[in-house]
## 1
Amino acid sequence: MGDRFFFRRSGPKADSLEMDLDAKDKSAILAAPATESGSPLAFKFDRSVAVWAIPACLVASLTMNIVALKLPFLEIKMFPQPPEAYSIPHTVSLMWTTLKLYWVAVLIAGFSLVFPFVKLTSLFLLWFYPLRPDTRGRGLKILGSLGRWSLLDVFVALVLIVLAHEQGSLFVTDVKLGLYLFMAAILLSMSTGEVMAYLHEQAESPPELPTDRRPRASLGSGWRRIAVPLLLLGSFVSLGIAIELPFLKITAWYLTDNSYSILGTIGTLWKTEQHLFSIVVAGGLVVMPTARLLVLAGTWSIGRSPARFRIAMLRTRIASQWAMIDVFGLAIGLFLLEGSTLVPVEGQIGAWALLGAIILNAVLAWAAGGLLGTRLRDLEREARREAGDRGGEVPSAAS
């Protein structure tokens, strides 16, 4: 009787059935990360310093955000008016009630008042709440791409500091603690989000990719094979012009009619001993945009192994999230509307070059970045499929 219950079918049909079941089991295992709800990201690093360091950074960023909004960013004295405190709430109130620039007020309030708290709340949820890996990854990607926009009002304040340089007692700015705290809060939240994105990728154990050299990514890209090099060339040229040529000029008859470029802004901030702001501007407007274009050009035109291709895509993502020419361009646009009530200025050719660089970079990200991202996902999918066909566990890139 016992032999009947433990009787095992043998023969070709039974072996075929068993192989089919094994294949289905492996396919289910490979597909599981995208379909099943996982444990919180924090639980996957419960024996790491990250389990408390990530929440500590988020709390510190939240605290600095709250304190910064209660403090002025700058104190501005424009002869013959009395000193006036410049802060985010004051700017929003000025745009809404006095100048009737409602869309500008909504823009500043959204990016500098609302979004920082939305981002920190979301990062807390993404760290502690159990989510599907693909949902958590998508959330971290969206927050990472939007984080730099919270620095919009910081760039407006830095332009005011630069304009007041060498204007004597007619136009004076005094940097206050609120500006330091707010910028530190935003940079800390951006860094924490980047670390969380890296930890998420490690927790999901991306498959180990081959190390043999493959043809360059531009092969077989159709119209992109010609368009992407032209976009890269245009992006380099427009970025160089935007960095070198002036974007604003003071037109007030009672002030020195200085013109200011991005390089001039960096130098002026350094001369006025605002070294931290000078480094942030240099990194966000010169170093990172240039690095992004260089890495993207190399990834597009040079053949490399899938493993190195993944590393290049990671570098491109990081450089893209910290390149801030689009935020600075919007700040210049807002300043031409907002700042003209305080300091009469006019746009220069550098502002148009900056606009061109922003547009070309956006088109380049769509044309090249989208295709490269798709190819990386295809390579990882192929690696998982090959590992499943071999009947072993999917090798992890972290192992």
Note: Strands lie at 74-78, 84-86, 171-175, 248-250, 259-260, 345-347.
## 2
Amino acid sequence: MARRPSLLLAIIASASLLLGGIVYAQMEAGERGILPLDSSGTLEIEGITVDVGGKDAQSARFAGWRVAQRQGFKMLWAKSHKRPVSQAPSLSDGTLDQIVSSIIVQREQLGPNRYIATLGILFDRARAGQLLGIPGVRDRSQPMLLIPITITGGTATSIELRNPWQRAWAQFRTSQTPIDYVRVSGLGVDPLLINAAQSARPGRGWWRNILDLYGAADILLAEVMIHRLYPGGPAKARFIGRHGPDREIIGGFELTAANSAEIPRMMDEGARRMDQLFAQAFAAGALIRDPSLNLPEPPPPPVEEVEEERPAPQQATTVRVAVAAPNAATYNSALAHLRAVPGVSGVQQVNIALGDTSYFGVTYRGNLGTLRSVLESRGWGVETAGGQLRMFVLRPGSTQTPQQPQPQPQPAPAPAPSTPPQPEPQIRTSAAVRPASSSADQ
């Protein structure tokens, strides 16, 4: 039983090493990677056909290159000024040797005394631009990450393996195009980050990381779908240009090749015409960066609360408070109410006299009138005299009123003048007085 865990661990370790070796082999495979040509400092003319004879093969080739330089400058001048080739000026061979950077042999046939070829001429931009009056392309797009995608046999590939479509874009001359292409070579981690599957991902966060890694601002997809009639036979290709992470279609066209040997030429022509589609879209203002590729705006900073300027606190003063405390309950209640007054920082018991007047030293921030109002609102009777307060318990049914000033004494009214007393009137009544008769007389 103890041998089983060790056996399981050995199997897992072997599988990990095998998978790691497979991944490493895929990363280091030799069938990928085409370095793009840097043609930013040159001006290019292609498709110059020459048919020249000479005393030997080398003389015929040299004469053919001379003719190609002359025709190339006239074609470049006509292309730059949009005029017929017949109106182009002629330069000496010595001047042409100074402004020609290199000669591209697209196709050639060399005989004993004859040279037939299709050539391309690269002129130095700094030197030829002064003669042509075109110092450079003035209006160029923002950096565009170019992803070439080839679909053949139901399989979509980009730069995972070398293919004619990738090679056509790697050899494409970008000196005369308004599009600032960012072309990847397919070496290193390029096949893992940029591939046909990545082009269909909608995640903006991943696209932002890739664009930042390669120094690009937007995305261009050059897609070609190849249909072959039979292996090695005629081929038909459908080219589609797309833009942005949502694969918006810009345009498309179709090209054909007579056989498999003509496919590289077809791809070169497809890259040239695809560049024209991108340039037309750029001139029309269609290559606008998707706002979702921008980094989200950071949240607004928290609003700082503006503190109102508070008036400077008043200095604490000590107020002498006298309390008429007939008993301990009244004394304790007065002490508690004084301590609970806002602005009171301390109450010192100066004299305790139950049944008489007790005194407190109250440390208070405020004026005396406010302290009196607070104590009165809590049911105490308060009197102010000489900068100190006197607290006492109000009797039930009595209310404290401010002392009214004593009324001034009024002078006594003057006595009325004396009059002589009048005699009282005598009331006389007449009545018959009958003398009492005695019983004896009766």
Note: Residues 38-135 form one domain.
## 3
Amino acid sequence: MSNSIRTKLLQVDLVRKGWSWYRNRCVLAKYYEFVDKYGGWRIEDGSSATFQTSIADEVRQKLGARGAPHPTREDCHTLIMTLTDSWGQGMVCELEAFGPVTVFDWWKAGFVGWGPAFQRKVPELNERFFEFVRNTHARRPIDWVLITCNGAIILRSTIRRIKEDLGVPIVNQWLDCVHTFELGQGPHGQDLGQCDIAPDFDLVCTSSRTACSWYRAVGATPLFLPEGFSPTLTPRLERPKTADVAFVGACYGQRPDYVAALRKAGLRVVVAGSGWGRGSIVPRDDMGEFLASARMVLGIGGVGYSMQLTTLKGRDFEVPGAGCTYLTTFNGDLADLFHVGKEILCYQSIDEMVDISRRVVRYPEYREVIAACAYEKSMASHRWRHRFEAIFKVLGWKPRTVPEIPAT
């Protein structure tokens, strides 16, 4: 079936809902398969002090065993493999606080796309990346390598070659572990998800506490590390409020039902993302303006097509960090990071979402207090720089500290 026909069919409400129901069942089945296979019903508390100390000890032992160099300069040279057309650029901005940053963006290097055609280019992509790493290290020694992709992009052989050639720590960050831990064998002898490549990294950062058990089961060293944000990309802006609610994200699954419920309640909703129709794509550089134009921002925290599973999202930190009032799906992990009811707001059903949204729109003083508290917490605790400091702590490093931007 062509993409155009599929798109037209999914515009039929009954077809979309049936497809969403089916995909939800698939996501749940895969999740429970992962739980049974990799962790049973045992969940490692990846954020506990005991767990993090254990992981730090194990990581440092691995680095010491191969004689990994320790940064001797005041600053820290990072080489990051990421895409800079979205949140990856925020990571780059925040890494610059610790020293020079060298970026390998595989799309900008000419390796664009996904699927079978892209997989044929993966060996060439990996060879290009390895040479890039070696040449960069020759010009100025690299202190560590951060790779933000899964087994569909990076090969185990490349990770091993970098460790053997440079010896420096190699850290992986992947944010979709809950439903992409396994994706099936690819054409290069490894799973396209995380399960095969994870053990070869010195440290794997995951935004899912549940997935910590899975990583341990395959012999990896995981660190529960939520997403962060960069105030450079999503700054706090004071703008006239031209909409009641803003939502950022692609149009699929049950998301249209949430937006429709708010509009049916008489609220003006603006959306940004693929699939919502003409004019719905907001450039990255304009995202701060878009968020600031609404009285509140809606989050939908489901995992893929499933609203029965939840996961942390980048927007959970970008929106509060932009000084906006944020309402999203209740998630226990998120409730540990923000004070629900004081710094962010949460719902557990569409009806509750509508009720809270009406209250937020009706009472400006209420939403302004929520937004101010969230901004203060985000600037103090949830920037990407805070996440990198956590990684450096595990590695046993103390790079230079740049003074915080004061919350205003």
Note: Residues 13-39 form the longest helix (27 residues).
## 4
Amino acid sequence: MIDRNEVAEKLNIKLPDSSEASAKISAWSAAYEGRPNYLSDTIPDTLQLAYSAAHEIARLVTLEFKSHLADKSPMYDLWERIIYDAPLYTEYAAALGGVMLKPCYNGREINVEYVRADSFIPTAYDDSGNIVGCVFLQCLQRGKMRYTRLEYHRYEDSVYRVSNRAYRSESSLHIGSAVPLSDLPEWSQIEPDVEMHNIEKPLYSYFRMPGAALDGSPPGESVFSRAMGKFRDADEQYSRLLWEAKATEPAVFADVTMLRSDDKKKRSSLSRLSNRLFKLLDMGDSETLKEYAPQIRDASQINILNTILRRAEYLCGLAYGTFSDVSSVDKTATEIKASKQRSYATVSAIQSELEKSLKVLTEVIAELCGLYGIDCGKIEPSFEFDDSLIVDAESEQKILLQEVSAGLIKPEFYLMRRYGVTEEEALKMLPDAFGGQSESEEPIIETSEVKNMAEKLTGERLNGAQVSSLIDVISKCAAGAITEKSAVNIIITAFGVTEEEALRLLGLGDT
């Protein structure tokens, strides 16, 4: 990661965030990429828990996520690409605390770049903590030379300014010396300085992870920021488990005199497979063969690892079993539900931030289209998130069927939920026995007659919804879709009449 202080020096600016904020992002980035800073001889490898946490959060957040524009919108294709990429930039945001959604115009069309937190530096915030000044870093490698472009966005005297500067260096840690933008074909068409008036919002949208930052800084915290210590403990414990497995491999210690000598090489030799089982020693006058087969302590080692993993899951806001083996610990139904609710709360909060950032992105795209004279129409997307994380769809379907059977809900409502159809379509799907009607059929119940009798019996004036519900119950009872007893119970509960009065109302459905 390029030194932020060097960037500030090149642009002659003062950065509002401390160096600690940049160091945290570097540590998160290293852990996410599978190279945490604690790898050593004793911890030679990693379980990749940082990546797993960010990836799983992104998967849950964008599971069945849908967002669409009207089919005739000029930005329809662009928006479809943005939503298709949602798992990618959500994972970046989860790993590093946030991601920039930055639209740009390439002379032909508008595209959106997803800039990770280690590739931009905030330079100014407003009173609400929103980033209103920012430097974006883009690096290109050409042979041994590394080129870096700094794109600096800020407001100066109510004018929105964007400056672009290019630098060249042989080191990936330093920017190096300034060079013209024209040195690279990719940057040759970029203006060094641009001024824009009447720009109300910065030309980017920041998707920030919800929750308070550890140091109070606005950019946001990684979903695994508080679990970094547990990730190290887990990697260390996993290394112990692997060492335990290797150290307890069965072996046979054999005296060198037990092996046949290789006449050509004038020494005793073992095949590659035998060498793993037999260990040659000069035992002298002691035993010529000795078996080595200690008992592995895998159960205790795995239990320790699972304990660490469950704590890491808690700190990441994930349900138990995401990393750990949830079957190894007895859990009550209440504990399992609470664990899922914690994960749901995490995901729901991130989904709210995602929707908010995408709405801001639509405003930025419209602003950019206005600057370049591009017709974008109205960019008003719909948003729909899946709730299967906390809702068991199969169990919910069974409950709905039971409620239909008990006459508590209409069959068409079940079909609407089950197949995603409209009420009109659901009614056409129903067989006649359930009150399904063709377009030519007339209702078998006289609405005014039901309304008059019901109001007379209850002594109250009924609204349209109450009358419609009552007619529905009477119709289903008359058609045999529900039993008379169920219909009577529903009417008594809903309208506070006696059983005899409920039966009189049901009599209106006789043909």
Note: Residues 333-372 form the longest helix (40 residues).
